[in-house]
Amino acid sequence: MTDLTIEFSNMSLALFLAFKALLSNETPVACILVEDDKVIAVGYNGTNKTLNGTRHAEFEAIDQALRYFAANKRHAAGEDVVKEFANVTLYVTVEPCIMCASALRQIGLKKVVFGCANERFGGNGTILKIHQDGPGQPYNSFGGILRTESIQLLRNFYIQENTSAPVPKIKKNKDIEGKVFPPAIHYENYVNNDIFLSFYGEERAPLFAEENREITPLPNQGYCVADIIDEEKLRSVPQIQELYNDEPSSSLSDDLTTFANTFYPIGKDGTIDYDKEILTVQDFSKRQNNEMISKLDVDEPDHKKCKLTSDGQAVQC
Ligand SMILES: *[C@@H]1O[C@H](CO)[C@@H](O)[C@H](O)[C@H]1NC(C)=O
Ligand SMILES: *[C@@H]1O[C@H](CO)[C@@H](O)[C@H](O)[C@H]1NC(C)=O
Ligand SMILES: *[C@@H]1O[C@H](CO)[C@@H](O)[C@H](O)[C@H]1NC(C)=O
Ligand SMILES: *[C@@H]1O[C@H](CO)[C@@H](O)[C@H](O)[C@H]1NC(C)=O
Ligand SMILES: *[C@@H]1O[C@H](CO)[C@@H](O)[C@H](O)[C@H]1NC(C)=O
Ligand SMILES: CC(=O)N[C@H]1CO[C@H](CO)[C@@H](O)[C@@H]1O
Known about the structure:
CATH architecture: 3-Layer(aba) Sandwich
Radius of gyration: 19 Å
Bound molecules: 2-acetamido-2-deoxy-beta-D-glucopyranose
Shape: globular
Order of helices and strands: HEEHHHEHEEHHHHHHHEE
Strand order of the largest sheet: 2-1-3-4-5
Structural class: alpha/beta
Low-confidence stretches: 168-174, 290-317
Strand content: 5-15%
Number of strands: 7
């Protein structure tokens, strides 16, 4: 059985960074670079803060990785860069855009794991297969890891931007932006069936051409983000800790609790459980003002209150 728990766990760190970006009015897209299970760099969309349209999450992370290689006396200039990224995997919440996909080929990245497709600016499968064709080294691109969660953050961003949009209901908020979720990733646009099976496993073979089921960490078992994110690992990433050094008023624990309640769980059958109460961006500031306490059951610890039943069927929150 192919256990994708580590892929989900890594992606949940990128998702947390995207959530942090949302809290600071940036487009909620973020990524981490992982080498041998170690997070060597992080990035989130800084186009607003830096007023630089090319400061996509991937570029932030690549710059950090180059500094990391240099600090560790690894050669990070010219041709050698291609070797340095040979064991590095990018986890990014949204499929890299055409510009980023091209840069990733040039640095010789090992592979990309992404959440949702980039419908407008997709560089891999959605619009152009940049990851497979063109100059540089081709890499494999595996999507659908925390896909609906990545979309939920983007939708929260758009409703926040749209002041004429109605305030969404917290309960049974089926479609945050007034839309249903787009169909699952069209995997054949990214990888062939053999490569698909080598990553996702034989048990997930039907998902290659499935429109309505999400990838889950274990086949035929549901999950929720609260169960996936590893708080210890999150806290061990210095770049994430640094985000809190500048803002003493916000705490990582509080953000983690809000974060864990922002997403619908995925059931055993791979479909979204819309019955769970979730928080949306309109609730975040209220929560920061301690007005959300009644909305959240304060079981200990409250960001872990989402649990699978023993048969892995329904997710109880
Ligand atoms: C950019 O940042 C400003 C100031 O934080 C914020 O008011 C605005 O909504 C942000 N816009 C976008 C598109 O990120
Ligand atoms: C970053 O944010 C800008 C401005 O909102 C947007 O145009 C761009 O597509 C975003 N980049 C990614 C990778 O989402
Ligand atoms: C914007 O970002 C790009 C890529 O990271 C960088 O090469 C460029 O110098 C930046 N431009 C400005 C005006 O800072
Ligand atoms: C990548 O991993 C292989 C196998 O473990 C190792 O031989 C190689 O030196 C690694 N490359 C880099 C750049 O770390
Ligand atoms: C803003 O919300 C309104 C009401 O839901 C909707 O009709 C409109 O299309 C939205 N605008 C944008 C730019 O999404
Ligand atoms: C998610 C996804 O794969 N979306 C699109 C991929 O590209 C094809 C062809 O352009 C579209 O039909 C899909 O909707």
